Amino acid sequence: MQLVEKHTVKEVTAHIRIQEYGPLVFNTLPSRSSVKKAIKKGLIFINGKQADSADWIEEGQLLEVFQLKPTTKHFKLNLDVLFEDDYVAVINKPAGYPTSGNFFKTIAKALPYNLKISTKNDALLIPQPIHRLDNPTSGVLVVAKTKSSQINLNKQLELKGIQKTYIAVVHNTPDSNMLFNDNIDGKESESKLEIIKTFKVKDDIYSLVELFPKTGRTHQLRIHTSKAGYPIVGDQLYGISSEKNKKLLLHAKSIQFKHPVTGNEVFTTSELPKRFEKLLNLS
């Protein structure tokens, strides 16, 4: 195990248990449920002994929080790192790999191979993606390197404070810029489409568009464009039955968020991948 945080109790003004006290003093355990889980896993110690959820806090106690060292092997895949410091990183995810999941060849398992180890006390032993890109989708992906940054960025995501822009090639020509708000799996979802240009290849009409998801449902952009009659080129799930292109032409072009420590705006972009060039060069 690796020590993440420690705290010496200086003064106790009322009877309080470790489960209630922990969120008040530990950055990496912001809620009672997170403290309870850590206690259950044997990751919190009081004066060198494993804590119990019924333990009372007393003046002078040394409280320590640990995390388990990972046992999984790293996936040796070279990634393009677009931004990195001790707290957060942004990488350019290649198409063809899942972001995470119960597989060996995932972007999550490749992160330790590409990112520097954080020097901060609450450094995550394995950096964690904050959001997800589908297997066939490429582009910018935000990664937390410390526990406190992970909590902060997840909160930004929940409050829709992280702005994402995608670029895609769709079939047909939208009449104008569009707003989609079809529910997905019974949940509210919203996306915006803006037309960059329309072009023709032989008898097929395509449009290069920018897409702006306001919510983050699974396959949201692919479902919204397909339902509207403008499926993304190469979409094997929601595309047209006569699809000739096998590669999904959907790319996370840019992302903007507040740095979890400095509060400064971080804006990162990724170039259009080569799989778009073949179709665009024919236009």
TrEMBL record:
InterPro entries to which the protein is assigned, alphabetical: PsdUridine_synth_cat_dom_sf, PsdUridine_synth_RluA-like_CS, PsdUridine_synth_RsuA/RluA, RluA_PseudoU_synthase
GO molecular function list: catalytic activity, acting on RNA; pseudouridine synthase activity; RNA binding
UniProt KW keywords: RNA-binding
Pseudouridine synthase RsuA/RluA-like domain span: 88-226
GO BP, one annotated term: enzyme-directed rRNA pseudouridine synthesis
Highest rank taxon of the organism: Bacteria
Protein family: Belongs to the pseudouridine synthase RluA family.
PANTHER family: MITOCHONDRIAL RNA PSEUDOURIDINE SYNTHASE (PTHR21600), RNA PSEUDOURIDYLATE SYNTHASE DOMAIN-CONTAINING PROTEIN 1 (PTHR21600:SF87)
Name of the protein this chain belongs to: Pseudouridine synthase RsuA/RluA-like domain-containing protein
Organism of derivation: Croceibacter atlanticus (strain ATCC BAA-628 / JCM 21780 / CIP 108009 / IAM 15332 / KCTC 12090 / HTCC2559)
Lineage: Bacteria, Pseudomonadati, Bacteroidota, Flavobacteriia, Flavobacteriales
